[in-house]
Design goal:
It contains 5 helices and 6 strands, in the order H-E-E-H-E-E-E-E-H-H-H. The protein has about 210 residues and is of the alpha+beta class. A 6-stranded antiparallel beta sheet has the order 1-2-3-4-5-6, covered by helices on one side. The structure holds heme C (HEC).
Length: about 210
């Protein structure tokens, strides 16, 4: 099917009918449209969501208890409507069954954050990249089946060079949240973070060459 789409897309381009396949509004045959329509206003200050372990959750279908249960158990399938966030500008939303068999119905979001709100930079299935140009699904697909694409530290994904202390600090500087006085530990972690982000960026750029 992918090949057929590729060919059709090329043909349309040659004919000058479309520059992008997606502007025709067609999805792959095995995918259906999202049930939970999300825009920038769906996302709130990260620390006002429900904390589970080191990350934050919500549920767009009113089933917060269901989401918290799976997150706390650390394995199992998240119910539809689940929203997971580790840092302010990356979100996973569990759409309804059939939305995206390849990504276990997860929709990935890359956001831009500022005081005014969250702007969705890109969203979708396998194709979404984060702010460093790295592909969400490429990393998250390495989580073993029982973890429903959730990586944590020991689910099979390649580890990130960021510590839990650093994630804690990043969550405390979400521009959407009321200003907090940073603890000395958070402030130190933020200082260490700059060079690490640079290093990840450079490695990603080198891998693309
Ligand atoms: C370079 C690999 C990589 C990329 C790219 C990546 N992630 Fe992750 N992500 C991870 C790892 C590893 C963790 C676990 C970190 C931890 O718990 O210490 C994680 C954690 C998360 C979590 C918390 C739940 C979990 O899986 O532990 C969410 C939500 C998340 N990422 C969403 C995204 C989204 C959305 C994107 C794209 C916009 C993305 N990630 C891109 C590797 C990646």
């Amino acid at each position: 099917m992918k090949n057929a789409i590729g060919k059709l897309s090329t043909t349309l381009k040659v004919l000058g009918l479309a520059t992008s396949f997606s502007c025709l509004g067609l999805a792959q045959a095995d995918e259906i449209a999202a049930k939970y329509n999300v825009d920038g206003s769906t996302f709130k200050c990260i620390t006002k969501m429900t904390a589970v372990k080191h990350y934050f959750v919500d549920n767009l279908a009113g089933n917060l208890a269901g989401t918290v249960k799976v997150a706390e158990a650390g394995k199992g399938e998240f119910p539809e409507g689940s929203v997971l966030q580790l840092i302010p500008n990356e979100v996973m939303v569990k759409q309804q069954k059939g939305f995206s068999p390849a990504t276990s119905d997860w929709e990935f979001f890359a956001l831009d954050t500022d005081k005014g709100g969250y702007k969705i930079v890109s969203h979708g299935r396998q194709e979404v990249n984060n702010f460093l140009g790295l592909n969400c699904f490429d990393c998250h697909k390495a989580a073993r089946a029982e973890f429903d694409l959730v990586c944590e530290q020991d689910h099979g994904c390649a580890p990130l060079p960021l510590t839990r202390v650093m994630f804690h600090a990043i969550q405390r500087v979400d521009p959407r949240c009321p200003a907090e006085t940073l603890s000395a530990e958070d402030a130190a972690a933020l200082k260490e973070l700059g060079p690490i982000i640079e290093q990840i960026k450079n490695e990603a750029a080198a891998n693309k060459k």
